[in-house]
């Protein structure tokens, strides 16, 4: 190509960018999946589509950030191989190509086996010597609970505690509890307010529980309690229900319980703990004493 042709192409390129309004680097679209169910897809692509001008190509850099951390988790400079950093070091397919343009080819993240710990805000930042642009979007990887349970026990003779538990859920759900009163053969739902969830984080998910005490005299006969765990981002809900009869003993805790220790059954009568083996020995001994005393008389 002659010098005149190069100049002509350069002029035409600048005219194109001027007419289309592209004067500096600009993110056109950030495509981030909003919701993914944990363990259901082998990969997910987060694409950062941007435009640039001829003056941007020399200093062009694409970076991705996670959850507001100032340290990038991904960096690509055209003509160089992309880098995965930090938490994403072994979680990206760095060979993935989002386009055939050498200045946008590695603009995207291809995340392998997305899991709950990768839920959060993703920021794409594209910069050059002339300008920079950044956009942030959220991706949630949710996990339904592995187990949901509702149970009751009686802290006093005239009250009941209702506890709801969800295990292995992500993210932290909204928890609702209601109970149903029976009035004139109609079930009237009563929302329970003032619940304070307790939770702990283990292996990428949460164990969440709520608990509430009720006086028996506040419940009219047989009462159904229901707990709901709701993940708003995923529009996911799961419910569990239990029926309680005021005045009855709880099925979870009773005054007389049975446990096992070292292969010997122990019976707890509320005041003392007696082994079955010891009980048999005492019975035999008393029988022998009774027989001896009869022979002597």
Would you give the CATH topology of the largest domain? Immunoglobulin-like
Basic shape: elongated
Main CATH class of the largest domain: Mainly Beta
CATH homologous superfamily label of the largest domain = Immunoglobulins
- CATH-level-2 architecture of the largest domain: Sandwich
Order of helices and strands: HEEEEEEEEEEEEEEEEEEEEH
Summarize it.
This protein has 297 residues and is mainly beta.
Structure description:
The chain is mainly beta and 297 residues long. It folds into 3 domains: 25-142, Immunoglobulins (Immunoglobulin-like), CATH 2.60.40.10; 147-244, Immunoglobulins (Immunoglobulin-like), CATH 2.60.40.10; 257-296. It is 13% helix and 45% strand. The chain has 2 helices and 20 strands. The protein has helices at residues 3-20, 276-296; strands spanning 26-31, 35-37, 43-51, 61-66, 74-76, 83-84, 109-112, 120-127, 132-142, 147-153, 159-169, 174-183, 186-191, 198-202, 205-215, 223-231, 236-244, 257-261, 264-268, 273-275. The strands form 5 sheets. Strands 2-9-8-4-5-6 form a 6-stranded mixed sheet, with no helix packed on it. A 4-stranded antiparallel sheet has the order 10-11-15-14, with no helix packed on it. A 4-stranded antiparallel sheet has the order 13-12-16-17, with no helix packed on it. The longest helix is centred in the last third of the chain and has 21 residues, at 276-296. It is elongated. The relative contact order is 0.11. Mean pLDDT is 82; it is low at 9-21 and 251-292.
Outline the secondary-structure elements:
Blueprint: H1 3-20, E1 26-31, E2 35-37, E3 43-51, E4 61-66, E5 74-76, E6 83-84, E7 109-112, E8 120-127, E9 132-142, E10 147-153, E11 159-169, E12 174-183, E13 186-191, E14 198-202, E15 205-215, E16 223-231, E17 236-244, E18 257-261, E19 264-268, E20 273-275, H2 276-296
Parallel strand pairs: 2-9
Antiparallel strand pairs: 1-3, 3-7, 4-5, 4-8, 5-6, 8-9, 10-11, 11-15, 12-13, 12-16, 14-15, 16-17, 18-19, 19-20
